[in-house]
Amino acid sequence: MAVRSSAAGEMQVRTVSSYVVSAGTTYQVFADSAGVVPERIGIRWLNASGTEISITWSLTTLGSSSAWHRVGVAGAAPAGAANAQVLLSSTETAVAVYHFWENVYLGLPIRVLGNLLPFGTESSEVDASGWTAVVNATVTRQVPVVGWAVDNYTAGGHTLAMTAVAAGNASVLAVDRPAVTPGVEYLALAYLQPPVIASAAWIELRFYDAADNQVGAARSTLAAPGTGMYRQRASAVAPSNAATCSVAAGLDGASAGQILRLETVVITVAPELQAGTLVPYADGSFEQGIAGWTTASGAAVLSRTTPWGAVAYYGAYALTIASATATASTIRSARFPLGDGAGLNHRAALYAHVGAGSWSSLLLRVRWYDAANTDLGASVGTSYPVPAGSWLLMTSDAVAPTTATQAAVEFVATVSSTSSVLHVDAVALWQVLPLTAVEAVDAGGYVEVTLRELTVGYELSVYRELPDGSRQLVRGPSGLIGHQAIASDLMLIEDHEAPLNTSIRYVIEQWPPGSLSSATRTSDYVTLSLADINEAWLKDPGNPQRNLKVLVQTAPEWSRPIEQAVHRVRGRRNAVVLSGVRGGLEGDLAIWTRTDEERRALHLLLDSGNVLLWQAAPGMGVDDMYVNVAAVSEARIGTLAQDVWRAWTLPLIEADMPVTTGVNGAAGRTWQDVLTEFDTCADVLATYATCEDLLLDRRG
Predict the structure, then answer these.
(1) First to last CA, the chain
(2) So what's the pLDDT on residue 463?
(3) Quick check: 617 and 530 in contact, CB under 8 A?
């Protein structure tokens, strides 16, 4: 939107519409702006009759820029407020001057998910009350001119400004004390804007006991490449006596009047660089230093890359291994508890990148220790060449000795030229389950297939392979899984169409985008059993929760109808017959239901009229068959009214396998989703007619 001044002085524009708000609720407004003078943004609060109550204005930006930059503010709707409008303001110095606005938002505050700090402390958009000076500092707010990505909605607008009162160290502290769980690793992060490149700006995660005494801290110092906004991270495991936490920031050796700005301050549970990794965040990411890494042997010197953002695979920093001589060096992490991992397979992984010179090889392995810290030796390891160029992923699997209680990641890097530099980042060590696992669930009539470490962005095909080598695509939520995009590295498939009493396996293909060749893996063989040959499964491929095992009374007497036209020609003995294609099998399947629950379940299965899968045990003279079921009869088998057995006649017509039908369900839906949305069981019962409706989130 282009706003053009009609004279020198302040010009304001506002939304034509007003938007419903609730008094007492905090709302946020922001926009991206560009112009030749500073600007501000506001929320105009109106009562139910449209009369202005007040305006919540942002501070005016510290400068102007013709490049897009973010302005914003937040505030609680005052008493009596029913509606709100967005106000945009700039004070032009001449007539016919344009000011530009884009990307305007008004609504509830947009938060960093998982942040333990409240919105006001995270963003400073409301005020600076979430912070207090610790030493040699004053706390205010400012709106610097900073360009943010158009879709970075959690940054921009007001920043917290810490000003050093005098020369020396200065720091501020968040007044909030969110609760923590001892033994859990937490991460504090914020954008820091130092006053000069040489500033020693830092962020610190602090822990407190129940009496508010500080019992632990982890500091991370920014290696600033300039005076922009740089995200800095600090992590630590909450001590055993920790009850709460907070975050501090400051400048060491500041000059009087120097300002450190903070933006988007977060405390959250530390993310895992790999699900289940034993390596703490600090040791795997190198965001606050080299943590517990040491040179066990050789000439290599370790350090954190500098400055911020110069070299990294994850975050803003990596581990630097510098060797002045063409020799081999052994680099080892700290020791990490294995938990219950003794005797189990583990995988070590890291990313490596040549920074200078040349490296002939990197041998990655795991070193094991017992409870007395006795070295139990290292695994054989896996050796990789280290060519220059992109970051390279390197992995090595090893089984922990039965007496092992600790492990360290270790690699031997061999230099082939003097003055060489190697970078390492994103180190992880975790228990490795099979890439592909299969389990027959006989009671449910399906095979559970677990696929791990899939490559997000690739395409996936999953086949069921029979003993004769024939293959059939397996069904998933979006139909048969053939060249479907991979959205997660973990996939759980229930194959309800797997044949009974037959040894099968699964073939998994991953296709890189645009590639004509795939990476292939296969599962172990698995057999889905049907113990009683007098029983059979009736299944709905799209709604497997309705599948039912029934007792067979009589198998069908099959017929195969055909459309024919018979023409009898005068003087000719044999008729002329014009035939269509002979149809599939048709016949009546007689079954019993033995309980009222089975009877109701069969009604539910048949109600939809969907194509069903009929499966009998091999050797019964019937192959697995997709069928349509015509008009059904249900009869009692005796004269006793209380007898729950029923005799059914199901007229079956052979059908083609449904190709596009997906497995119906709410992906990822758990009881937590229900508990989050509903206060009482009565609310749930009033919303869903059946348990199936609850499972599928299908509301009446």
Answers:
(1) 44
(2) 97
(3) yes
